[in-house]
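Page 37, continued from 36.
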């Protein structure tokens, strides 16, 4: 059984994230979506809210679980006996950060591999930050996020 961790802040989860997750479910028999607490990023949603928004959208995948984690990702991956970390790359601009993070993780724990997965090109320009900004000003985000997330964004931005 091969197991991967798909980590992220997921504030909020987008269709791009879900596309990467779908690809991971085809590559691994078990996928753990790891919601990073990451208070330094000043997330809009609490870790518990993000966990619930994600769970609703992955319920159809029997091989996916969603958990909250804090601390070093490689330590978390080891604690779950994961074989790999999956990271999505939308564009070349993501590569430098992700490459450096993968090298650091390899330095810290050489047995945990990092695999980069490209989402469908339709999601290559979409980010959680952009989605939050559009939602904040009352824009339609329904093409970028699932309905439960769009609703949560409207409520959070006072545009409900």
């Amino acid at each position: 059984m091969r197991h991967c961790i798909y980590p992220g802040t997921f504030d909020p989860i987008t269709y791009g994230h879900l596309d990467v997750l779908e690809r991971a479910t085809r590559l691994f028999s078990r996928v753990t979506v790891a919601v990073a607490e990451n208070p330094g990023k000043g997330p809009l949603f609490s870790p518990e809210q993000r966990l619930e928004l994600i769970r609703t959208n992955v319920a159809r995948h029997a091989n996916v679980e969603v958990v909250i984690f804090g601390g070093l990702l490689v330590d978390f991956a080891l604690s779950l006996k994961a074989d790999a970390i999956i990271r999505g790359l939308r564009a070349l601009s993501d590569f430098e950060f992700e490459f450096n993070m993968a090298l650091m993780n390899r330095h810290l724990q050489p047995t945990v591999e990092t695999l980069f997965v490209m989402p469908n090109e339709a999601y290559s320009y979409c980010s959680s930050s952009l989605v939050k900004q559009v939602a904040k000003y009352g824009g339609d985000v329904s093409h970028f996020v699932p309905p439960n997330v769009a609703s949560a964004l409207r409520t959070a931005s006072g545009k409900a």
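The first strand starts at residue 3 and ends at 8. Flag for discussion at group meeting. The radius of gyration is 15 Å.
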